[in-house]
Amino acid sequence: SHRMYAFTTRAARFVAKTPRTASSRAVSPARAPARRVHDAKRAARARIHGAAGASLERTDDAWIVVGCDSDAHGALCVIRGPRRGVVSSVKVIDNPVSTVMINGKPRVRLDPDAMRESAAALGVPKRTRVYLEEGGVEFGFSAQTAFVQGYNFGLWRGILAAQEFDVAVVKPQAWKAALGLKFKGSTKDDSIAMAKMLFPEIVHELSRKRDHGRAESLLIAAYGHVANGAAAAEDDDALCARVRDVLVDRGLVREEGAPLPYFGPYFGMTGEELKKELKARALKVSGTKSELILRLEDDDAARMSRQAKSATA
User: Fold this and answer.
1) Is-above-0.85 flag for pTM?
2) Is residue 18 a contact partner of residue 231, using CB atoms and an 8 Å limit?
3) Per-residue model confidence (pLDDT) at position 247
4) Which residues of the chain are under the pLDDT cut of 70?
5) Where would one find the signal peptide in this protein (predicted)?
6) Can you spell out the DSSP letters for 246-298?
7) Long-range contacts: 197-205, Cβ < 8 Å, 24+?
8) What CA–CA distances, in Å, run from 15 to 7, 46, 93, 208, 277?
9) Per-residue confidence (pLDDT) for residue 4, from 0 to 100
10) Residue 157 contacts residue 130 (beta carbons within 8 Å)
């Protein structure tokens, strides 16, 4: 189906190590790219990327992850649990807005003062990881809409950074593609339906069409958790398992076979963006998209190895 294709064409490589609770889900082998490195090499790379993400998500008895849909109709969510991936409570907070006059017309815009108060009132410690969506500019957007998207993102990033949170930027095309929501005809209702499946604890707060911002903040947080470090966790990860189960239910992955597709740091980047990054590192820029990603990750692994050696020297 077109949904399966949208999901699997972005699967450059498979994550080598995933939580045992859901290790049997897979992308269709017919669509999965050929493996180009040995399992041991991929496992080492997954551990490196997992360690990078793990340092920013709390792993003690106060595991917390925050998601933020940055536009005026978006929301913040706070997911808590006793340990990584175990969800004990979910809270959503609508983005604070006010009505302002622009060119003689009333417009709904984010309220910076109230945003600061909302961020301070989250009740989470410093260094908590926040997954913040950077609203993309889509075909047909006016200059005004594009400006507002960037303005909203910049406001949230500054306010969250001022609270000393660790802000990780998430591209909408990345999380939507990974969760099977980037297809022709996809609507906000699809986001709400998926969020209800992933977080049944909070379905009562996702009952209206206008709750799509709440739903997307939850999906952003879930995607960020899976993409950054969850694959390297030693223990079972219940949130990761939830994501997989929902994808299986929607027919986006199969129940048997290898783990979820590649969710690494270069997921969602275009070929040109990958080549630009390679060029900046003075690396070869030719090859398929999966080869470009592999080259960047090999370089990342080599850098991490050198840093580890110098630290112990």
Assistant:
1) no
2) yes
3) 82
4) 1-61, 136-142, 229-236, 251-264, 267-268
5) none
6) HHHHTTSSBSSSS--B--STTTT--HHHHHHHHHHTT----S-HHHHHHHHHH
7) 197/246, 197/249, 198/222, 198/242, 198/243, 198/246, 199/79, 199/87, 199/90, 201/87, 201/89, 201/90, 202/90, 202/91, 202/92, 205/92
8) 15, 7, 33, 36, 22
9) 33
10) no
C-alpha 198/C-alpha 179 separation (Å) is: 11
Alpha helix stretches (DSSP H) within 87-237: 112-120, 143-162, 172-178, 188-198, 212-227
The CATH class that applies to domain 63-168+195-235 reads alpha beta
As a whole number of angstroms, the distance between CA 178 and CA 13 comes to 13
| Amino acid identity, position 130 | V
In whole angstroms, give the CA distance from residue 46 to residue 262: 10
Residue in this structure with the two tokens 């049944």, named with its chain if needed: 200
Where are the chain's structural domains?
63-168+195-235, 269-313
Residues 57-90: pLDDT tens digits?
A: 444 447 999 999 988 899 999 999 998 888 999 9
Tell me the one-letter amino acid at 113.
D
